[in-house]
Amino acid sequence: MKKQITLLLLSFLFVGTIFAQDRECATMDNLEHRQQLDPQLEQRMQEIEDFTRQRIQQNGTQESISGNVITIPVVVHVLYTNSTNNISVAQIQSQMDVINEDFRRTNPDADNRWSQAADTEIQFCLATVDPNGNATTGITRKSTTRVDWGTNDAMKSSSQGGVNPWNTSEYLNMWVVPQMTSGGRTILGYAQFPGGSAATDGVVMAYNYFGRVGNVSAPFDGGRTTTHEIGHYLNLRHIWGDANCGNDFVSDTPTQQAPSSGCPTNNVSCGSTDMVENYMDYSNDSCMNLFTQGQKARMRAVLDVGGFRRSLALSDKCGSTPPPPPTCNDGIQNGDETGVDCGGSSCAPCQSGCSDNEVTLTITFDNYPEETSWSLVTDGGTTVASDSYSTANPDGSTVTETLCLPNDCYTFVINDAYGDGICCSFGNGSYTLTGPDGQIKSGGSFGSSETTDFCLGSTPPPAPTCDDGIQNGDETGVDCGGSSCAPCQTGGTTLLHEGFFETGLDGWQDGGSDCFRYSGSRSFEGSYSMRLRDNSGTASAMTSETFDLRGFDQVEFKFYFYPNSMENGEDFWVRYYNGSSWSTVATYASGTNFNNGTFYSATVTLNSSDVNFASNARFRVQCDASANADQVYIDQVTITGISGARAIRSAGNGIQALRSGPQGSVSGDYLITPTVTRGDITVNLASYNINSSYRILNLLGQTVKAGTLKDGRLNVAELKSGVYMLEVSDEEEKIIQKFVKQ
To answer: Across the strands, what pairs with 694?
Structure first.
């Protein structure tokens, strides 16, 4: 039985990878990730949407806003591993040329096919002034060993090897990386919608889809990936609305069933010709050539007075006027200051020594010029690390020590790489001290300074509060429980995951050669399931994303499966990762638990008293058969966290036969049939009663129909074609299931 789920997760759970195509934009994937980290994001985005709708109603879709062209400063952060992906200035400039042409409708491939094509009167420039007021090219570069950066914003954090954004209220930050993959897909780029965290705001592209000259890859070699992602950044959605004939919130874009691949200029869907030339489609770069007047109005609204990105529209970081002279109270180190607002020719001298909330770390080398030992000593006289050179440390070796203070860890490296020809001493090398944000101090020729002091911050983290939105201190839940906060509410369920595989892998990892996303009749609902076969280890397995299970008393892992040609004794398992190791928590054997050619429902219940509910828990379904022809098909996986009074059920591995073959009727606790309909749907849940209320929600979380169940049947013929969620509330709980209205 499906449990209650928050609206935004409901809204976007199924749209992250809808209709896998050659072009892959991970903006919706990233939105789901950001929402999981930030429970308030849904509300902020709804407020931005309300403002946008109101502003468009006030201003209309103006064809021209003469004299009001908005210029947005851009900084490009290039993360590279080699000379190929350390892209040239010419390639970066070509991308700037493309977005200026595309947003101002001066692109050479513009045509008159769509009369609503618009000059957005938005343009871009590489920043000429950096956040410290110094001159800049608008380009930063950082060498890295990391190739694949994924889509969870690691490239935007120096502590994860990336580059922190420049002030996102004044700069459009672009990160260019060697590669991004997600769920086995190669990602071209992604963006953050307005409303997200300033620490991750901006757009990201892989280097070979950035610009139109240099190291670019066809058919996405025209710079339109960046145009597309900036569209998201300025509050545009995919033209198909991330649903079957979905809503992109723009009145003058034709309703479209799905993303385009290639350039199908005469394709018709949802009763009209698809606008495959729109920058917010998935067509090839050479096919795209326009934004519409309605899209212009949405982008301009977010940059207008009161809009979320208004400060960006007012930014002067591209101006040719020299920045104001540094002052001694601007909170940054500039001019000839030797510290923040201190030192240099104009400001008071910087204070020497460490502040009260820092630890003085003294590094001492002995016996100049031939050092034989060293030590790290705090200002309290405590030796935190030391070593003596001996035959175990031959000439030319490197010693690395890690020092962890209450706030962060630091690494101290002594490198006698050059050697001094003496066995057991080091007198001719170098040292570095590195913290979480990079190198703090370095030096050479050890004997040049017998003692060196460093100031390392050691302020302990702030005391936990009961309103910071995280579980910390001795809290037993988020902002509840423990010695300081109100008790956590007992009882309740949380839907952690629901995967139908209709639009992609839904966060699961494909194990390899013997794991396959299958389309056909061996799917319990819809058209897709996951097929596992043979016994090739993790290649015969599907592995989930990570889940934070801390705070739950029980976790239910429910799924549907269909075995095919599994011989007696052949089986498959459900496995659980507890943060450090895998264990098998359920085994299903042919001839004992199931027979071929039948759909089954299975539930594995885990108790916190039996297994460790970790912050990085994972699940895996793995096949153990004898040949490729022996297969099991997995569909509709639900993972539910249960706490308090709800967790009184005994742990077990319940299994129920549902129907034989692909055409039978559904029984058990399946909520509705059919799941794809043109008119009526039937509620089959045994516990529903005549007083149960229902709501039908679209994928934006909006209620489109509501009422009270009379006889278990609902008519949805009046709904537009698309994907919806039915929520039924009985006396005990809410249950939710997806259906498709054709």
So the answer is: 707, 728
Residue 590 DSSP label: B
692, 711 Cβ separation under 8 angstroms: no
Instruction: Assess contact for 23 and 513: CB atoms under 8 A.
Output: no
Distance CA 596, CA 608 (A): 34
Q: Which residue in 481, 449, 448, 447 sits closest to 464, CA to CA?
A: 481
Residue 525 is a catalytic residue: no
Q: Report the C-alpha gap between 644 and 560 in whole angstroms.
A: 27
* CA distance to 389, 420, 445, per residue, from 448 (Å): 19, 15, 6
* pLDDT, tens only, 104-135: 999 999 999 999 999 999 999 999 999 988 88
206 in Cβ contact with 48 (< 8 Å): no
Cβ contacts of 235 within 8 Å, gap of 6 or more = 48, 52, 193, 194, 298, 299, 301, 302, 308
Do you find a cis peptide bond into 322, omega within 30 degrees of 0? Answer: no
Beta carbons of 213 and 275 less than 8 angstroms apart: no
Of 32, 170, 229, 475, the active-site residue reads: 229
- CA atoms lying within 13 Å on the CB side of residue 290: 17
The pLDDT tens digits of the residues spanning 160-211 come to: 899 999 999 999 999 999 999 987 889 999 999 999 888 999 999 999 999 9
Q: Which of 503, 547, 505 is nearest to 530 (CA)?
A: 505
User: Is the model's pTM score more than 0.70?
Assistant: no
Q: How many helices (H) and strands (E) does the chain have?
A: 7, 38
